[in-house]
Amino acid sequence: MKKTTIGVLLCLLFCLNQLFAQDSKQLLKDLKKISSDGFQGRKTGTIGNQKARDYIVNRFKKIGLTPFLPNKNFVQNFPIKDKVDTNKITEGRNILGYVAGNLDSVIVVSAHYDHLGMNKNGDVFNGADDNASGVAALLHFAEYFVKNKPNYTFVFAAFDAEEMGLLGAKAFLKKPPVEVAKIKMNINMDMIAHNDKGELYAVGTFKYPELKKYFLTSNHKVKILFGHDDPKLGSNDWTNQSDQGAFNAKNIPFIYFGVEDHKDYHQLTDEFKNINQTFFINVSQSILEIIKNIDTKKDIKTIFRSKLKM
Ligand SMILES: [Zn+2]
Asked: What's the whole-number mean pLDDT along residues 288-304?
């Protein structure tokens, strides 16, 4: 090889490395910020939740996502009735933006941004893994697809009130900004940054085994396992345990990415210092590869048509 060719190759490798390092830095920065004490555990209806929302909306703007009109501020409000005092209504607020693709068929990428708030002593449930991790990855994917126009139209949804029973996702599907019939798939992330064995679950291929092929071509640095989606597993069937459940209720195909429960799950210790940073960065890269596979495979429509009997 000529010296100049080697030079160009080395430069290219260096540039790619730099780009990757930059992406990783932003991913961790977002995760750290969203799970910081200042956001007070992001419980629906609280100031902390509002602060987290302001941060995410600003990131949506900076990334260059498009809002659904008339909600120029990216926010979709929905009412939540108090279970005990039914006159008391809390406003839930989803954050929605999109990237127009070549097709008007839609893939919804989602992650909930709300969490448990604080305990009586004022200690913060930071929810670094649950689910600042999913939101940080969602921002990363949004940035990628703004820069690289997709085939499908991608809706990015940071849902509120997941911890109260998937309420944000249900409200989204009750009043969707696009026709439900156009939504071909949901990719949901909830807890993707904390597993000591380096394992991530992809849930949904029990119902949609054809989706497995989009995982095969990727060179994953994490171990991606299929499972937690057989109804026979009872409470270990995660199909309806996060926001993808609301899509599943409408028979919209889904993949949910998440880790096994861990010692910090719904504890005060689910904080930035306890996540697995390298694992999280690798997981984000792998999920993006899978989404790209889904977006570029020509035969995806046949799969969905056969499943949905469209
Ligand atoms: Zn969660």
From this structure: 74
